[in-house]
Each structure stands twice: as C-alpha cells, then as structure tokens.
From TrEMBL:
Keyword Transport: yes
Keyword vocabulary terms for this entry: Signal, Transport
Domain of life, source organism: Bacteria
Protein family per UniProt: Belongs to the bacterial solute-binding protein 8 family.
Signal sequence extent: 1-26
Protein's name in the database: Iron-siderophore ABC transporter substrate-binding protein
Pfam families: Peripla_BP_2
First-listed, main subcellular location of the protein, grouped into a coarse class: other
Entry keyword Manganese: no
Record-annotated Fe/B12 periplasmic-binding domain positions: 50-324
Subcellular location: Cell envelope
Length: 328
C-alpha cells in the first residue's frame, strides 16, 4: 500500500472514530448511571463540575463535600433565604446562589430546564425508584442513583454520602464526613448510658392517622446509634420503605419508654391537643419530646445529611436525656 493510501486509510479510521464518539455522546445515548458505592464510578467530573441535584438532600451533601450545585431540588422547602438547604449548610454557598427547582411530583422534572443548566453530573440518589426518570436523565449527563433494590427515598444516609462523594472524586472526604457524625453519636452515647436498651419511637401525626420512622431511615437510625431500640409493636405494623403507618386503633403501639413526636402538614397545636397521644403514659409522664414540624431539629433530621444529623443530635439529645431520666 502506498504512503498516500495509508494516509487516506488512517484518516478514514479517525473520521469513523469521531462519528462513533459523537453517537455515544449524543442525546440519544446514555451517559451512564452510578449506583454502587463499592465500585468505581467509571467517569471523572473534574475539579469544578456543574452539578444538578434532584434527590432529597443530594445537593446538601454535595455542598458539605465542597461542591456547590448549580441547581437544587428543594424537597424540604427551605427556600431562597437559605438557598435551598438548611441553616446548618447555607453559609457554605458563600456568594453563590443555586437555582431552586420544583415539580409536581418526582417524575415530573422539567428536563429541558435541566438540559439548559448543562450539568456535568446529575444527582438523583435519595429519590423514587423510577427507571424511566433515570434513563431520561442519563441522556443529559451521568447520573448518580440509589443502589438497585432500594425503596423509594429509603437509601441509607451513609450510602448516599459515599455514592455522591465517589462520583465527585471525593471519596475520602465522604468517609471523613461520615466519621465526624459517627464520632458525635458515639460521644453522646457514652455520655448517656441510660439510653441503652430503652424502647423508642420517632413518630408523627398527619392527616387523621399517625406514622413511625423505621430502621434504615436516619430519623430512627441516629437514635438507635445512641442506644435506643425500636418499640417492638412498631415493627409489626404495615410499612412502606422507611415509614410504618399507625392507624388510630393502634396508637398505643407508640407508647414506648422514650419518644419524639412531631407533625406532617399540621399545626403544632394539633399535636399538643391530640387526645389519643395524650392518653399514652409516655406523654403523661413527660417522656416524649414534642417538636413542631418547622423546628430546626425536625428539619435537620428530615434532611438526613452528615452535617444536619450532627446538628440534630446536639440539639435533641439534652431533651432525650431529661426524658430518659423519667423512665421508672
């Protein structure tokens, strides 16, 4: 083959490779989905990636790891005042302000809006398990999602942090962030040996019924880390992922030795004046910590990030200490 033909051949090969690469990266292709914290993400987003965070608290965790998302889905309704995150994280944005996204439901994202943000990475970890949403997002940018088999919004806070950390190339920082919260928990546990083995519920009143958070959700797990155990009757209730429904006829299942009660979508007065809850000995004996839905501690527990859980533990533990001291 002549030198000229060899040159033409390699030029054709190079052109073909460019075409194939363009096809892989086109809107019709998939950018990949990362959902295994034990594996390598298989991509690199660089030092200053444009991150769009759609999952519950995904953006806050990225921020705690030192990456400022350009857009956040504000699940907890923190609003512009704290830039879509809790008061414990807002200052980390500095002078930057993310775009706050909204939708009617988890599967109702404005995909054109997300595309226009030109993300290098999309976080959708603590979210509904919807392959159609994941597949659509993967046409825009690489996606980080919950491990296969996770319930809707039920990914463990540590797994969520590990996934986001590794996807951002900050796996070591994620490990350190988790360890710092674990250290706070261990310290408070050691300071409060009376917590060990005490039955406990973290429950809410909503609508005309009640509910309790279960193991696997940070709103229970952080208190288990202090030594409390789930009130046994709660484990027999019908559950949906991280939450057990408590019908009115079974409200006594919430009568643990120590409790936290709050509301969802109801004023605090509805909790204070609830005759069924007030009939429980845990309330009558002042062993229940009652918190308004907008109490920063409740919001921090709901956010379920390393920093927010650390914040909540420091705020709530003194009240639990007083409650546990009243157990006969």
């Amino acid at each position: 083959m002549s030198k000229r033909r060899i040159g033409v051949f390699f030029a054709l090969v190079a052109t073909l490779l460019l075409v194939l690469t363009a096809c892989v990266n086109s809107d019709d292709g998939e950018n990949g989905v990362y959902n295994d914290p034990g594996a390598d993400p298989g991509f690199s987003v660089g030092d200053n990636p444009r991150v769009v965070a759609l999952g519950w608290s995904d953006g806050a965790i990225a921020l705690e790891l030192g990456t400022k998302p350009v857009a956040i889905y504000d699940w907890l309704g923190f609003g512009e005042a704290t830039k879509g995150v809790g008061e414990w994280d807002a200052a980390k944005f500095g002078d930057d302000t993310p775009e706050l996204l909204s939708a009617q439901s988890q599967g109702d994202f404005n995909y054109q809006q997300i595309e226009e943000l030109e993300p290098d990475l999309i976080l959708n970890v603590r979210a509904a398990d919807d392959s159609k949403v994941t597949d659509r997002l993967a046409k825009i940018a690489p996606v980080v999602s919950a491990p296969s088999g996770s319930g809707d919004f039920a990914v463990n806070w540590k797994t969520q942090t590990e996934l986001i950390g590794k996807a951002l190339g900050k796996g070591d920082a994620a490990t350190e962030l988790i360890a710092a919260t674990d250290a706070t928990s261990e310290r408070l546990k050691n300071e409060n040996p009376a917590f060990a083995g005490k039955t406990f519920v973290n429950a809410v009143k909503y609508g005309t019924a009640y509910g309790a958070y279960l193991a696997g959700d940070a709103r229970f797990d952080v208190f288990a880390g202090l030594g409390f155990v789930q009130n046994p009757p709660v484990t027999q209730l019908q559950s949906s992922g991280f939450f057990a429904q408590v019908p009115v006829e079974r409200v006594n299942d919430l009568n643990s030795q120590v409790a936290i009660f709050s509301t969802i979508g109801l004023p605090f007065a509805d909790l204070e004046n609830d005759a069924r809850l007030n009939s429980l000995s845990v309330v009558r004996d002042d062993r229940a910590v009652r918190l308004a839905e907008d109490d920063p501690s409740v919001q921090a527990l709901s956010a379920g990030t390393p920093v927010s859980l650390n914040f909540a533990l420091e705020k709530v533990t003194p009240q639990l200490t007083a409650a546990a001291a009243r157990v006969q």
